[in-house]
Amino acid sequence: MSRQGHRIVRQIIERFLEEMAESWDGGHSDDSFRDSLYTEPIYEAFLCPLTRQVMRDPVSIENGQTFERDAIEKWFKECRDSGRRPTCPLTQKELKSTDLNPSIALRNTIEEWTKRNEAVQLDKACRTLSLGNSEIDVLQSLNYITHICQKSRYNKHAVHNAELVPMISSMLKSSNRKVRLKALETLCIIAEGDDDNKEVIAAGDNIRTIVKFLSHEHSQEREEAVSLLYELSKSESLCEKIGGVSGAILILVGMASSKSANILTVERADKTLENLEKCENNVRQMAENGRLQPLLTLLLKGSPETRLSMVSYLGDLVLSNDVKVFVAQTAGSVLVDVMKSGSNLAREAALKSLNQISSYETSAKILIHAGILPPLVKYLFTVGVNQLPMRMKEVSATILANVVSSGANFESIPLDQDRRTLVSEDIVHNLLHLINNTGPAIECKLLQVLVGLTSSATTVVNIVAAIKSSGATISLIQFVEAPQKDVRMASIKLLQNISPYMCQELADALRSTGGQLSSLINVIAEDNGISEEQAAAIGLLADLPESDTGLTRRLLEEGAFKIAFSKVISIRQGITRGGRFVTRFLEGLVRVLSRLTYILEGEPEVIALAREYSLASLFTDLLQMNELDKVQRVSALSLQNLSKQSKHLTQVPVVPEPRFFCSIFPCLGKQPVITGLCRVHRGFCSIKHSFCLLEGKAVEKLVACLDHTNEKVVEAALAALCTLLDDDVDIDQGVSVLDEADGIKPILDILRDNRTEILRQKAVWAVERILRNDDIANEIAGDQNVGTALVEAFRHGDYRTRQIAERALKHVDKLPNFSGIFTKKGG
User: Fold this and answer.
1) Is the pLDDT of residue 172 over 50?
2) What is the C-alpha separation between 60 and 780, in angstroms, rounded?
3) The pLDDT of residue 827
4) Average pLDDT, integer, range 18-32
């Protein structure tokens, strides 16, 4: 071989030796660490020439040189891979054979020497850890223990027997972060594959200490702690102890689902939880903290006893809505099957779980698809020896109420072979019968079932028909007086739902029965904020017919209007705080107050009350609540009713008769000039006493409502303005008032737009009166769109509208001014 070839071979050998030394000693390139591991002198014969480490399995090659088996095998492989013949790494001479001969005597000598050194070193480590030496000494001892435990399982037993494990565990409470971190790492290595060491590590409060590291601010300590817990969790006997530490499973669940933590940490946390699943109590804790799959797996695949236990656990959990959906999808059918065919104990557990799952709309619909309705209804209606205990009937009623509130199409879900549904007449009759023959808890839930069924436009008609056919109106109203608030509220909500369909029946019942009306008013009068019950109670009263004067008088007697007025003022002034139900409550209050305006005619007492409450001013102010269409509409209608009374309530001045001598002396008969008269009503008016729209500055606000997007608001506002053009008032002045308020154009726009038939009728009536003013008629006569709109009304309106349209067309010379185009109806 040439000189250059020898140089290349030497370079290869040197590089190889460096790599071997680094890989063999774990990255320590110097001899100091190696030497620190031994107390007795290290003999050169013990060291592998390649790795410079004490040999574990010494072997000799054909020229008698001794090496570590792994090191020389790797050298021979390097030779083959580079295309060279095998050589001795020391002499660089080619070898004829690569056979290896174990050096048994040398190995035994090294093992004995190593054991003596390890015993001495362990004793030294024990003294170092127990005497509280310096950080460097402690870390050196922990490094040594880590090193020897990685070498063999025997050394782990030696560490155990030397009682070093408790000492290392105590290092977890060190104030030095490096020591704590090294202690965690060392314990993890000691615990791996050694159940005895795991038991010692888990003694005392060590598990609690390790768990604390899981939420530590330093990521390295978190990572080492979860690795240690993972090793400990492999021992089934420790799973319960780990799960028993407060917060352990919660933190692990959080780590396992973390998106920001180290991926290895996330995997270790997840695997730790998988190991902890061996303990049922841990499974329950995982479910409580959002890791529900283990519980559901046991529920679906466990033994009968385990399944029953998991069903019971599930019923005790507080589940988020997303989890309810997941459970319904995963185990809903199984739970329904247990409810249908299990023992009473299993059935009760299943009902408890289904009660919670059904409390969310989406999961309730999944349970409907799983077939929950038929058995629920069957359990509720079954009587005799096969009936459920009352507590289970109560849960069944609660589940049914939950399911019904989901808004599913119950008309299409059959309950039995006869294809009956929840809204079938006999089923509703049975529900009504059960409501009247059971305790408050079930009463409340079944009333809520009816509330749910009457909240849908598709099923409310069926329920109303069944209530009427069963004669249950009076019995349902009686629940308004129930001492239990939830029963009372469910009853009021039900009555409000059905009131649009049987308002007169409810009005008759409330007017003729005992204290139910008083109970409703007392609910409304409560001063603890604004509740759903109050909103429902006022909504019920608001839905009752305004034309029922007998009911209005009862409300007067009960002081309902005084309460409603004070509540409106309180809300307007911000004294009563708003909430979820403030809009519904205010709408109901305004509608109830408006009842007074329907019985003003010939009722001095009611007129006095309207004056006392300044109702005209109140309704005028309420017109400006722009986002509350119902309030604006009712306020405009109430102003219409009040304004109709203005012509009767205005104080027309009395002009004295001229005396006899005035005829002789005409200068003495000149009539006095009276100022301050209302232009429209020709008397002394005010918003408070005669409800005059002009005096109350209501005209401009009503005109503003004519541009509203809601036709009902426009209809009401136009109707109120039309009272300024009524007979028995000064129509010409009324037109002038509208003109000054810029109200003519919006009325003409309404006529042109023809949005609804009612609006067209009112607009035609108003326009005909406006066109009696010659100046305005001349101005409008050239507007082709107005003419066209009047012609359309003339052609297509009802009889009265066509007559009025005819007169309007004459005003703008669109029709010849002669009579007889229409004969009087019936004439």
Assistant:
1) yes
2) 124
3) 34
4) 48
